[in-house]
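Please fill in the sequence for the structure shown.

STRUCTURE ENCODING:
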């Protein structure tokens, strides 16, 4: 791995060998003498494009075997990891595509949650966080062995009808 120090290689190797592509600071703290040293190495790895920060405590490791530095994990899995598996659901066009109502693959994914709002670019897709007071109408689904929350088929059908996305088509 060109451009990485021996300690960075040690940390990245440990994470890859244990297949810990999503990791927290606690997972790698044993490699460092202090929290300040860990902060420095995390900053360096982020700057070199080896890890991506998902939330305050969680990071995503881009593995060595990745093509041109990118390994695209399924967007729904990344979203679930950002929210630590709670207080969100995926809606909008991404949910419509998941349930088979539309064929076009959306590049932006709407996520309804209770705490976040705004946009975040990860890999080649945009996550749009929409804050709501109550989360209802979602179901748990599984993709690649990972559970995530998505708007129910009925909720997406009603949403599409209200938006008149598919004019002249019945759901």
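FILLED IN BY: designer on duty
SEQUENCE:
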């Amino acid at each position: 791995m060109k451009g990485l120090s021996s300690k960075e290689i040690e940390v990245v190797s440990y994470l890859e060998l244990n297949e810990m592509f999503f990791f927290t600071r606690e997972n790698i703290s044993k490699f460092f003498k202090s929290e300040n040293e860990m902060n420095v190495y995390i900053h360096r790895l982020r700057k070199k494009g080896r890890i991506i920060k998902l939330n305050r405590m969680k990071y995503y490791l881009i593995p060595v075997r990745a093509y041109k530095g990118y390994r695209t994990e399924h967007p729904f899995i990344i979203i679930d990891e950002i929210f630590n598996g709670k207080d969100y659901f995926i809606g909008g066009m991404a949910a419509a595509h998941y349930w088979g109502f539309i064929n076009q693959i959306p590049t932006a994914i709407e996520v309804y949650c209770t705490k976040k709002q705004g946009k975040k670019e990860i890999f080649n897709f945009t996550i749009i966080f929409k804050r709501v007071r109550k989360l209802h109408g979602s179901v748990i689904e599984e993709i690649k062995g990972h559970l995530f929350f998505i708007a129910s088929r009925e909720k997406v059908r009603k949403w599409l009808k209200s938006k008149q996305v598919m004019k002249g088509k019945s759901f």
